[in-house]
Amino acid sequence: MATILVQPPFPASHIIPPNMMKTPRLVPTIHPRTSITRFGEFPFGSMPIYITRVTEQSSGLVGDETFTHIKSELYQALEGINRGIFGVPSAKKTEIEDLVKMLESQNPTPDPSLNLEKVAGSWKLLYSTITILGSKRTKLGLRDFISLGDFFQIIDVSKSKAVNVIKFNVRGFKLLNGQLKIEASFKIASKSRVDISYDNSTITPDQLMNVFRKNYDLLLGIFNPEGWLEITYLDDTLRIGRDDKANIFILERSENNSIISLD
What stretches pass through the bilayer (predicted)? Predict the structure, then answer.
């Protein structure tokens, strides 16, 4: 046992779940003449002294239970916002970014570019600060005619390749349902950053391409991944990244590895 001062990087109410918090013993404040505490009023010098002692913890401030708690809060914050693609209220955006920063500050994989085997496979987009608003949304028919399905990213580390897949559903025309596929190459730029180069893109089926043909450059400009990506958080099921355009991406590992072929 030792007397120590603990000052977490974030308020305890944000970092430590209520059932994990311990209430320290009270240290009364002494008034120059009398001291008033929950035990009553004491003349100066006659009040008992209480010393708070904190048990030293070798496991650190943030443990597995805390990670689980923060991730649970993040998942709850992401519910019902359609991945943020059509914008979210500023308060909600701030809430999400605060939770992201908490996870980033305790990243269990500090050198993700050197551990790319943890990045390989299929990922599903949960949230992005990329938005399609106003006239862009209207031009792309994303108000009533076309709806966005799931967003997936498939990463093949052995080939240094990544494929982004954006699903589309056309109301009343199932034959037009399809996807935009964007293929890219990446190379390691630092211990946490990769540089991404655009390779090619396709829309299938052809009927869906005909729908987007007039505004294809607009569509590609929104989803083109070219630039660099900083992997700021990585564990077995969740990945967070920030790109050179100040966007945030939150992805969850997907078990469906047969969504698309990288060949």
Answer: none
